[in-house]
Amino acid sequence: MRFLLSLSAWLSTWTAPFIIAVAALAFAEPSLFDWVRGDVQTCVLGFIMLTMGMTLTTEDFRILSRRPFDICIGALAQFTIMPLLAFSLVFFFGLPKGIAAGLILVGCSPGGVSSNIMSLLCRGDVAYSVGMTTVSTLLAPLMTPLLVLWLAGESIDVDAMGLFRSILLVTLLPVGVGTLCNFLFSSRKGYRTVCRLMPGLAVLGLACIVGGVTSAHGMKFFESGALIFLCIFLHNGLGYVLGYVAGVATRMSKPKRRTLSIEVGMQNAGLATVLAGRHFPLLPEAAIVSAISCVWHSISGTLIAALFSGMAKLRKKSL
After folding, report:
1. How confident is the model over 41-87, as pLDDT tens digits?
2. Sequence-distant contacts of 42-47: CB under 8 A, at least 24 apart
3. Where does the pLDDT of residue 221 fall: very low under 50, low under 70, confident under 90, or very high at 90 and above?
């Protein structure tokens, strides 16, 4: 068990290089991840969200009730900045339908679970990060389909009700089950030990999703040229900047600004990848954009967390 706990901690710390290594392996040997398709992919994402639910405690929900203003600001920033940035990039670059669908889907997704780890690494407000991720995930079944329909419905056939059912199935339901398990069994030592393994298992699940998409569409990653990578880079980078600006504008403390920046910039691109494959099968570029976002958000999140942490250390030394 000690080995498994150490492995989970290692995976949580080195998420970005591990995801990149898996993507490279899936590109070189696609057959290794052929099994991550369709319903299996959906189940993997559901498991990731279950791990999130198992980390939520009654104290987390008390924090939500005590900080309604901060949580509202965070949710508003989450579901306005990234969707509108995605739409603006689609309009500015005149992106083709497949790339546009993927970018908008990523922009309209809730915050990613790995953002909580990044908030810890950058000396942010971890409780606020958990609260934001929880609320955005709970709102996702309603907000994501509505935003995708609003921003992309005129040019792309969007099944909003299908998106709603899928998000409900792979986010809200497993998070609810995980939270219930935590409520019922958190006093048991064995259960608490299992919960400590969940971050590493979530990373493995995300790696499987990225590997599955890479094995299916690996050769297409480079067919759209640098445009896909440029748009993903701008979308993610501007999300970090505008998230931090939103924290400054609402006079948040510096730890909260860092957290808001990371929560806004890092999306649940794993969810977007599954939704793209299920609901936009005729637009394979949508899944490719989502999969590349999975990898890049992990890399950039690690980098921005290191930057914030370094700035905090320098500021502390100068005082």
Report:
1. 778 878 887 887 787 777 767 766 777 888 889 899 999 999 999 99
2. 42/166, 42/169, 42/170, 42/274, 42/278, 44/205, 44/208, 44/209, 45/170, 45/205, 45/209, 45/270, 45/271, 45/274, 46/169, 46/170, 46/173, 46/174, 47/174, 47/201, 47/205
3. low
Q: What one-character DSSP code corresponds to residue 188?
A: S
Distance CA 260, CA 70 (A): 10
Residues 87-138: pLDDT tens digits? 999 999 988 888 899 999 999 998 877 777 777 667 777 778 878 888 888 8
Place 154 in a pLDDT band, splitting at 50, 70 and 90.
low
To the nearest whole number, what is the mean pLDDT of the chain? 83
Extract the tokens encoding 300.
């950039």
* Tokens 């922009």 -> residue: 107
Residue 165 amino acid letter: R
Q: What DSSP designation does 267 have? A: B
For 295, phi then psi, to 5°, come to: -70, -50
E strand or H helix at 217: helix 189-217
Contact 76, 132 (CB under 8 A): no
In angstroms, the Cα distances linking 91 to 29, 96, 103, 231 are 36, 10, 12, 11
d(CA 128, CA 254): 12
Q: How far apart are CA 155 and CA 99, in angstroms?
A: 12
Q: Tell the burial category of 187 from Cβ atoms under 10 Å away from its Cβ (0-12, 13-18, 19+).
A: exposed
